[in-house]
Amino acid sequence: MENSTVTLYIEFNSTVNQTLTKMPQNSLEVQVVTILLALLICGVGIAGNIMVVLVVVRTKHMMTPTNCYLVSLAIADLIVLLAAGLPNISDVVASWVYGYAGCLCITYLQYLGINVSSCSITAFTIERYIAICHSIKAQFICTVSRAKKIIAGVWIFTSVYCIMWFFLVDTNEKVYADGVVVKCGYRVSRNLYMPIYFLDFTLFYVIPLVLATVLYGLIARILFMNPLPTNPHDRIGHDSIHQGRSNNAVKLSCKSNKGAMSSRKQVTKMLAVVVVLFALLWMPYRTLVVVNSFMNPPYLNTWFVLFCRMCIYMNSAINPIIYNLMSQKFRAAFKKLCKCKQPRPEKVTKYNMPVYYSVMKDSSHESPDHDVTEQEDLNGCPIPSKKVNFMDKCNDTNTAFSVA
């Protein structure tokens, strides 16, 4: 009787174990959606961020302090897309295929890219604040050399900070009734991981967003609430020492200041959009982790987890699109990079009478894809060029030529 009871108990446990240990698999819909979205977002993001790096590095007038921080952000986004987006494609179809070393390195690179992108956003936010609200100090502080030093410090700090992930992750093998599944997961328990996560959450999400909110509020007060006067009479009194200056010079100066202010507003709006998208696209994942820290069992809906991941990949892919839509300078540089240059035949123009070079502009360097210069970008409009209009027939040798 006792033996039969033991036999029934063993058979019951084996039946339960076979039911509980069946290998879990993602549905076909989840696999297809994940692969298509990941390939699309990562493909666009990788191409766009590479273009950002190339146009800034290869174009002399694009090498500004703000653009140096954008290059750092682009490299960080590339790391996120390569280390998080592409491995997710294989992970959703099968088990972890990159081994123990791949688990350590890929996890390290994921957090490195995420943290560097957050620090780069904080850096260009502070740089914009100094450049606009403290313009005199900005001439000595906001330089390309100083920006490169700050970027190097950011990468060194985050590289050292993320070393801890080499000791927090490991590969886990779980045997099921119909196979073995290998996962790259955390080595420590949830209770030990929670303080580390909240430290990471505070340093690289909460503090950057609070700082950005305060600084962009101060920037908006300068740019939009206290704009520079555009009327010459508001800036120069009737008894001013500049009264001897011609009216044309005064109007040109005011127009230049107005263009510079417009350019500053455009750049600030673009960077503010980058910060807002960073906050919004990271919010689902950050909220999910915070909620799961206090829930047992955690909320791991497959479609919502997929949505959170795609938001992270989209945040790393969308910045080059924002630059192209909101910056005329980046748009022109992107067009020049994508356009294949072909040799153009030289035009030989014949004139019936001598023309002095002093009244002509050499047209051999003009092209439809001429870059916007630094001065043109600051003024908000291109510098007008001189053109010479000649009459087809000149009966009188004393005819004066008109120069537009």
Automatic annotation (TrEMBL):
An annotated GO cellular component of this protein is: plasma membrane
Q: Does the keyword Cytoplasm apply?
A: no
Compartmental location:
Cell membrane
Taxonomic path: Eukaryota, Metazoa, Chordata, Craniata, Vertebrata
Q: Which GO terms describe its molecular function?
A: thyrotropin-releasing hormone receptor activity
According to the record, the signal peptide region is none
Kindly give the membrane topology term recorded for this protein. Multi-pass membrane protein
**Classification via InterPro entries:** GPCR_Rhodpsn, GPCR_Rhodpsn_7TM, TRH_rcpt_1
Location of the G-protein coupled receptors family 1 profile domain: 48-323
Organism listed in the record: Lepisosteus oculatus
Has the keyword Disulfide bond been applied to this entry? yes
Give the record's GO biological process terms: phospholipase C-activating G protein-coupled receptor signaling pathway
Give a short account of what the protein does.
Receptor for thyrotropin-releasing hormone (TRH). Upon ligand binding, this G-protein-coupled receptor triggers activation of the phosphatidylinositol (IP3)-calcium-protein kinase C (PKC) pathway.
Q: Name the UniProt key words of this record, in alphabetical order.
A: Cell membrane, Disulfide bond, G-protein coupled receptor, Glycoprotein, Membrane, Receptor, Transducer, Transmembrane, Transmembrane helix
Please report which protein family the annotation says this sequence is part of: Belongs to the G-protein coupled receptor 1 family.
Q: Could you list the residue ranges that cross the membrane?
A: 32-57, 69-89, 95-114, 150-168, 196-219, 267-283, 303-326
Q: What is this protein called?
A: Thyrotropin-releasing hormone receptor
Predominant location: membrane
